[in-house]
Write a sequence for this structure.
């Protein structure tokens, strides 16, 4: 039985309509998801070697990566896509490890702001160094198709899909 050709269509935020062969699109998604999973695993392993669980590492990234190197707990919860009560426990653990400090918000008496400590910044730096070293062999192992698929699918996910059809 011959397989029927199917297409998938979507409209970008700028109202451009894209039409792709479904099977070809899924091949790209599979390649991109492989790359994403592998990259995330490499990053998580580097964080674990520094004693951080992946979500703790992500919290530290979000806090230190904020414009003023600090975030209100509510914004941190939003950036991590977790509930505020869990975020508070996460922050307590990071504070106990000496990686962050908590202070009362100057603008909201009920709010708490979290900042990275020098030790937190040092820990992030070490992880980044390890990630850069660990990524080199992985990048070298990627085929051109895997690289292209990862770029195209990520571009679609963030709303800047390529103008050329996949």
């Amino acid at each position: 039985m011959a397989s029927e050709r199917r297409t998938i269509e979507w409209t970008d935020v700028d109202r451009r309509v894209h039409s792709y062969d479904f099977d070809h699109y899924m091949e790209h998604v599979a390649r991109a998801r492989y790359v994403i999973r592998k990259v995330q695993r490499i990053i998580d392993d580097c964080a674990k070697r520094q004693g951080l669980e992946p979500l703790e590492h992500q919290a530290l990234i979000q806090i230190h990566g904020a414009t003023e190197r600090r975030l209100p707990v509510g914004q941190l919860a939003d950036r991590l896509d977790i509930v505020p009560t869990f975020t508070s426990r996460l922050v307590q653990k990071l504070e106990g490890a000496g990686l962050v400090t908590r202070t009362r918000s100057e603008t909201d008496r009920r709010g708490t702001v979290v900042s990275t400590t020098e030790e937190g910044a040092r820990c992030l730096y070490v992880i980044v160094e390890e990630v850069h070293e660990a990524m080199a062999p992985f990048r070298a192992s990627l085929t051109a198709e895997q690289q292209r698929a990862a770029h195209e699918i990520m571009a679609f996910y963030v709303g800047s899909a390529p103008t050329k059809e996949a």
